[in-house]
Amino acid sequence: MGFLPMSSCRAGSKVTSRNAPYMHQHTIIDAFINRLELETWEKYEAPCLEKTLTLLENVKNYTLWATWIWNANTIPMGNLYGSIFNLGNFDQCMKPPWLETHPEFRTKYCLAELMLSDKPKKKAEYDPYGSTEEYLNSPTTSGLPVNYLVWGMCVPAACNPPSVLKITRFMYDLTTIRPQAPDITVHSCQVAGEQPQPGIGFYLFLTLIFMLMVIAAASTYYRLRIANENDPSDSLETVITKSFCITKNRQDLVKENKDEIKVMNGMRFLTAVSIVMVHEGFYSNMAGMINPRDYEKMLEGVGGCFLHLDVVVDTFFAMSGLLHIKGLLNNINRQQNLFSVLWKRYVRLIGPFALTMFYLASVSKFTGTGPLWIFSNEQESEVCHKTWRLSLLMLNSDVKFLCHVITWYIPCDYQLTILATVLFYFYKKDRRLGFAAFGTAAVLSLIIPGMLTYWYELPAIHFLDFGRVLRGLRDCWELSITYTTFYCRAGAYLVGVAMGYLMTVYKPSEHRNTVSKTWSTIGTTLSLGVMAYVLSLGQYVIFREYNAMEAALIASSNRVAWAVAICVIIGLCEYGTVPIVTDILSFSYFTPLSRLSYSIYLVHTLLMQRNKFSLRSPWKFDYFCYALDITGTLVIAIGLSFAMWLLVEAPLIKISNHFLMGRSKNTQRIENQEKNGIQQKNRDTKTKAA
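-> structure tokens emitted (690 positions)
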């Protein structure tokens, strides 16, 4: 174990450099042996005690097998600068070269969570002459803890968690960070040489991907080489080959639609990039940074705008509401089956979502190893395995049981789609009823988040207590009340619905350039100012004493204000002339990237989990490494999303649309026949009367 020398020499004593290392190590190990022998051990812990004492005696003699195990451990370092994870050398512990030939030396790698203080203060203190324990009780401004530590321990395989807890406590006493042993919890132990075996779900997933690739390749070849124009359009062969044709799906990805709002393509993709950036920092901290205080300074820089970046998700909600109601209103004079509308939206969301859940439940835990692998990926896999059915039904919004926490957005968006469809139904029946229903929903979308925030005394801005989030996002119960529920995110969506209604009544194609360039520029500038103000609320809140009424007002209004600013920019770009902004957001390359944004949202965190939770040591934050990781994640996510579009999204949408259109055509044909029959009957009646 890489302990620093802890002995001291009396004045005038002479110690040679050759003997010094042995004396220092001998002193530490003897002290450790004495501590172990003085501790009370249960009967079931006897094998662990015996193995550990044998290990230490052999370390004193520099026996290779014992030194190998002992050297895989390290003392905690850097946690005063916020470094939470001290992982030792995972591979040295888990992969000794004599694992098969000498199983008696088998080891176990365990993670121990240590709380170094139990009386945290609200304000950090940095008195260099003060007590270290006082400093440990002082979290940083953003809640970054210095009193929390995750320590990787390499011990004999005979040791169970209670025994590992005692060993960890004795080892901790040698670190001299504080005088008393902290509260310790041991879990996530991995035994050397034991690897989980893939189940049937693993092979089913690989088979599914292989079959999709074969079908896509065969369909493409058939459409290019064999098919002809005389093939029946409604045959199963034609439907499948057209749906899976890679060439056609690639063309559909880049094709611009007639009534497309081009600036929204840029907004959607840039929002996805912002989310990737936020999650990169989040996962990097969850997997451990060696200099997290530097990351915290970055968060609090630029007016604290990074502290409330979670609000960018409301851009998706606003655009989703705009497009959904616009699509319904554009076809208001046609016969519409609203259940078919909801089914089409469900199909649009479910393909990539279902494949992602399948991967998480059956495959992800077999894709890597590492100190934190069980701590993260396997736990996520277990949650997905238990709750995937509820997620497929779009009913899961509890962060404790969500299959992949970021997927909270998908059921939330679909539930809001149902709300907007119901409002459209009322509007179609009676315009006054529709407006009244919308007004009621809008008022409730403002009241409910504020009321719940006030009642439960919840934070106005989530994720400001960064330390608590790092210790366990699924334990942040307040997220399930005001962050992931559709009735607390309805405000931004309904702003989009209102904008979609206005753009249907006043069609942009008929009102181009009705707003002058001056007013367009002023309006866009004010909207960007509102967005900057909303982002800065994190910095405002974090330095103030909590006030329930103030928190309620912020929770009610901040996301709506953001959505209004987004919709104003969209409107000014469509009805006016906004220099630079319109050109950037309407860039043609954003068209396919925008359509891939949904899959990018789902896929990018899978890449981060694989990358970050397989690390063997904490990650170093600096702007270059951060940008490099974001870029790499984004590029690979775009590639995987493109494959998802070709193999899953586009084929599923086309197959669903074919059957829905076929049914609507049959319905229309029956209606026409009935209508023609009535007209013929009326003509016959008139003829007889004549």
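The mean pLDDT is 85.
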